[in-house]
Design brief:
Elements: H1 2-29, E1 35-39, H2 46-62, E2 66-70, H3 77-84, E3 92-97, H4 99-102, E4 118-125, E5 129-133, H5 142-151, E6 157-160, H6 166-178, E7 183-186, H7 190-199, E8 204-208, H8 209-217, E9 222-226, E10 254-259, H9 265-279, H10 282-290, H11 301-328
Parallel strand pairs: 1-2, 1-3, 6-7, 6-8
Antiparallel strand pairs: 3-10, 4-10, 5-8, 5-9
Length: about 325
């Protein structure tokens, strides 16, 4: 009987030991199938351009493909909702961006992008938006737009990516600060709005620099100003909205990576490590800078969470200033 009890005890110890070792073995096995990166905006936009090359290189390093899946709609809320409801296993990730820290100050959103997701890391900071018009337009400066718009309220149509997105907020901020009434015409994405400016369907738009840079360089669009506080090195000759006389006009972009709530810290750390290994390569740094973006300096999950909170607060303050200016109009 004693020998039987000893055997049972030994077997029990072995089972417990096996169970306790299974978690790290499962973590070591990740990933063992493709990973989907959900971009909640159309192809060709700010997030899309920054992410695809990074995803391809990360997939090589992880040994599994990273599939970019554009899920536009609802000003970005549809795609984010898909990730929020996904299993926390590291196989469905969210590409979050500027609109996520802007939108809550203008629209009711079904989630909190700062606290409801597990942040992985920043892919790139920037770029700003660019105020663009058709080269044949009579508008050669921001001042030209303001003068005409004040004399013709509601006559100028400017494109955006929909309510609560960066381009839409840029129009709202411009209207309030300049005491004008540009009409916000929503498109599925900022790149589509830029193409509408070329076609003459729109009088202008605020589009992210990396989505319209080639069109500006080819002469198909004319840039009047950037929305960052300082000039962007990718378009050094283009002044800022601050230089045009709007001191609080500072709307800069970012692209990041997040996971569903309750995702394992081991998975998050692995993804962060591989993300940093890719974006710190010289060719990626050069590419980002050429597209008006900046590689992040410090980039662990805690850094990204702190960055998101700062961006959220900056845009909250900007929204309050914009509302006050609009009320005083």
């Amino acid at each position: 009987m004693t020998r039987v009890r000893a055997c049972i005890a030994a077997a029990a110890i072995g089972i417990v030991a096996g169970l306790s070792s299974s978690a790290p073995l499962e973590a070591q096995a990740y990933p063992n199938r493709p990973i989907t990166l959900v971009i909640p905006y159309p192809a060709g936009g700010l997030s899309d351009i920054a992410v695809r090359a990074v995803a391809q290189e990360m997939g090589k390093r992880l040994g599994q493909p990273m599939i970019v899946d554009n899920k536009p709609g609802g000003s970005g809320t549809i795609g984010a909702g898909i990730v929020l409801r996904a299993a926390p296993d590291g196989y469905t990730l969210l590409v979050n961006a500027t609109g996520d820290v802007i939108r809550p100050h203008y629209l009711a959103t079904p989630y909190d992008v700062v606290n409801d997701f597990v942040q992985i890391g920043i892919i790139a900071e920037g770029p700003p938006m660019v105020l663009v018009v058709n080269p044949s337009s009579a508008f050669k400066s921001v001042a030209d737009v303001v003068v005409f718009a004040r004399a013709n309220p509601g006559k100028l149509n400017f494109g955006s990516s929909g309510p609560g997105t960066g381009p839409s907020v840029a129009i709202t901020t411009f209207n309030a600060a300049a005491h004008i009434q540009l009409v916000d015409v929503p498109y599925r994405g900022a790149s589509q709005a830029g193409l509408a400016v070329i076609a003459g369907t729109l009088d202008g738009s605020f589009s992210y620099l990396n989505t319209v840079k080639a069109l500006i360089e080819s002469g198909q669009l004319h840039a009047l100003a950037v929305t960052s506080a300082t000039r962007n090195q990718a378009l050094p000759d283009v002044p800022t909205m601050v230089e045009a006389g709007f001191k609080d006009f500072d709307i800069d972009g970012f692209v990041g990576l997040a996971a569903p709530p309750r995702t394992s810290p081991d998975i998050v750390r692995l993804l962060n490590r591989e993300l940093n290994a890719v974006i710190r390569q010289d060719d990626f740094r050069a590419r980002f800078i050429g597209e008006g973006m900046r590689p992040p300096e410090n980039n662990n999950p805690e850094d990204f969470l702190a960055y998101l909170k700062r961006q959220y607060e900056k845009n909250r303050v900007l929204s309050e200033i914009t509302k006050q200016q609009g009320t005083a109009k």
